[in-house]
Amino acid sequence: MPRLRLALAQTNPVVGDFARNAAGIVDVVRTARARGADLVATGEMAISGYPIEDLASRPSFLRAARSAVEHLARTLDDEGLGDVAVVVGHPDGPFTPRPVDVSTAPTAIAKNCASVLQHGRVVATTAKYHLPNYSVFDEYRVFIPGDDLLVARIADVDVAIVICEDLWRDGGPVARVLDADAGLLLVVNASPWVADKDEVRLPLVTRRATESDTVVAYVNIVGGQDDLVFDGDSVVVDETGTVIARAPQFREHLLLVDVDPAPATDPVVTEHVQRVSLDTPNTTPGELAGRPPLPRDVAELPDDRQAVWDALVLGTRDYVRKNGFRSVVLGLSGGIDSAVCAAIAVDAIGAEHVFGVSMPSRWSSTHSRSDADDVAARLGMQYRTEPIADLVAPFDAQLGLTGLAAENIQARVRALILMGLSNLDGHLVLTTGNKTELAVGYSTIYGDSVGGFAPIKDVPKTTVWALARWRNAVAASRGETEPIPENSISKPPSAELREGQEDQDSLPPYEVLDAILEQYVTRAQGAADIVAMGFDAATVAEVTRLVDRSEWKRRQGAIGPKTSGMAFGRDRRLPITYRPSPAVDG
Q1: Of the candidates 18, 6, 193, which has an alpha carbon nearest to the alpha carbon of residue 90?
Q2: What distance in Å separates the CA atoms of residue 44 and residue 228, rounded to the nearest whole number?
Q3: Nearest CA among 7, 13, 36, 30 for reference residue 219
């Protein structure tokens, strides 16, 4: 059987930074070649980062992307790496927009492409056929679809190359793999992570391998891009559906694997198949030329809680670093949300770059102040106390504030302090609200909602508690100090804006609230359907009312890492001006 040494480069690109992204690709190709790789593959849009959104409509951006790919090919050759075949994902254009009756995106001028580079030139290019237009994707809007399946012959193996969504849908390029008699299906991806994604992704890869009798190599990018987190998790599955190589989640990795696909045969003439032949740098066809076989590299997946935590840490780290911030600042109340956000930030960028501020008011309890002190000490972060009572008093006196107005001014004074420190020292302000609070509007706009990034924006309250317990258990297992004080976990949550206030004064128990929100927000069930599941009708009516009336607040909130299949923002888009009408019978 012929053998091919394949390298999957799980890189972390920055959107638009062609020089940095290309330099990283050169580095991984150098390493891969030293380890005997015949073919190196990067993820979807690895040269430009993903998603590029409306940058795809800028001719100058597309020309720069094309130039970057051509320059990368020459650089590899100049560095003595030109004999290695490299597959790189990138946007291409500008193209003439296709007529309405032909294109799925008649105003688009770009294509989502993968190119094969060798000997200093772009040998062949293929464009994505299926353009997703759901959830976080808007490719139907910004790209022109491709037509052909690209098959590259190397080391006596025919390698079919497709891009991300083309693997997920029947028809198109994947349907031609059998007819093309390819031995290896290479899929380049920019697949964002959400919880339980692997329960869908790996079975799909396995099914494609067995149904096409083909080795499938799936390479994914990694890293945070705005509110998306890409987890890597690149994988190679053989014709029997067996995982023979797998990269770790949430970090850059070069995955090398020796594969034994079926040997190439005489080309069968098939419609919409583009074929090219590549040189083999390290072996003669059909043999490893004395190279010892590689050991199996199959990473274990983290458990569910660790996966969520790792995604939040990576998303926070990359947002901070990629946007040029050196440090973050957040309010420390002693409550569970701010404690978890502080722990995420410390894990992401280091305690020396995380600044916490305790801002006690006249209503702040002694335990809240001591718990905030305890969090800061446990994490070793930078910390200061700025009392707000004397700052709030003039507002109350001059405006005669009482009730809710007096409560909210406290939150807004705290926001002024955090933003002042941000302006003074260049910190990024982290806002600490969770998904449950955002859903029902349980926050003060321009107050505790202030900030540039929200680490737990897509994490329900009950999951915040679970993450805190998990993170403490991990620390204990390592003999380290548990980062979250037990009192922050166990005490009843409260905004402490009035005497004796608790969250459950205004909201149902969080276990009930999160269960209703799961049905109403995530599963898009109506109130009557939720009541039919056994929930109290009055509670459901109040929760759905709060969710509907809070859309205007959510539109103005900071972005945060997407961890679920239905995150506020890209996933769930509803009108602000909305008056639900009762169902009409008949």
Answers
A1: 18
A2: 15
A3: 7
Q: Which of 68, 86, 78, 73 is nearest to 32 (CA)?
A: 86
> Are 369 and 358 a contacting pair, CB within 8 Å?
yes
Tokens of 156: 């006596």
User: Cis ω on the peptide bond leading into residue 267 (within 30° of 0)?
Assistant: no
DSSP secondary structure string for all residues of 543-566: HHHHHHHTHHHHHTSPP----SSS
CA angle 332–571–506, rounded 5-degree value: 45
Q: What sign has the CA pseudo-torsion 515, 517, 522, 525?
A: positive
Q: Which residues contact residue 447 at a Cβ distance below 8 angstroms, ignoring those fewer than 6 apart?
A: 408, 410, 411, 412, 414, 415
The closest of 423, 418, 426, 350 to 384, measured between CA atoms, is 418
Cβ-contact 516, 535 below 8 angstroms: yes
| Count of other CB atoms within 10 angstroms of residue 136 | 16
User: Exposed, middle or buried: residue 218 (CB in 10 Å: 0-12, 13-18, 19+)?
Assistant: buried
Which residues does residue 150 pair with via DSSP β-bridges, in sequence order? 161, 274
| 556-582 pLDDT tens trace | 999 999 999 999 988 888 888 888 776
Q: Is 249 exposed, middle or buried (0-12, 13-18, 19+ CB in 10 A)?
A: buried
Show Cβ contacts of residue 567 under 8 Å, excluding neighbours closer than 6 positions: 227, 457, 458
94 prior amide bond cis, ω within 30: yes
| Catalytic (active-site) positions | 44, 128, 164
How many C-beta atoms lie closer than 10 Å to residue 532's C-beta? 12
**Mean pLDDT lowest among 111-120, 124-133, 260-269:** 260-269
Sequential DSSP letters for 403-468: HHHHHHHHHHHHHHHHHHHHHHH-PEEBP---HHHHHHT-S-TTTTT-SSB-TTTTS-HHHHHHHH
Please report which helix (H) or strand (E) contains residue 220, including its range.
strand 215-220
In whole angstroms, give the CA distance from residue 247 to residue 217: 11
AA identity, residue 128: K
pLDDT digits (tens, 9 = 90+) for 419-472: 999 999 999 999 999 999 999 999 899 999 999 999 999 999 999 999 999 999
Given the DSSP bridges, would you call strands 111-118 and 121-127 parallel, antiparallel or unpaired?
Answer: antiparallel
Determine the Cα–Cα distance for residues 190 and 210; give it in Å rounded to an integer. 23
CA angle 392, 342, 229 (to 5 degrees): 120
At residue 258, the 3 state secondary structure works out as strand
- 19-38: per-residue pLDDT in tens? 999 999 999 999 999 999 99
Tens-place pLDDT, residues 116-149 = 999 999 999 999 998 888 788 889 889 999 988 9
Q: Which two tokens stand for residue 181?
A: 């008699």
- Up-side HSE of residue 496: CA atoms within 13 Å toward CB? 21
DSSP notation for 141-176: HHB-----EEEEEETTEEEEEEETHHHHSSSTHHHH
Q: How far is CA 530 from CA 415, 460, 513, 519, 541, in A?
A: 37, 18, 12, 7, 10
